[in-house]
Amino acid sequence: LTSSLPAPHVIARDFGPLVAEQRLLGWMSRPEEQNLIERTGMAGALPELGDGGGFGVSVTNGGNSKIDYFLERDVEVVLDTGAGSSAREPRLVAEVVLTNTAPSDGVPDYVIGNAFGLPRGTSRSLVSFYGPPGLVLAERDGVPIDLQEFAEAGWSGYRDYFVFGPGESSTFRLEFSLGPAALAADEPHVYLQPLARP
Question: What is the mean pLDDT of residues 69-77?
Answer without folding.
Answer: 97
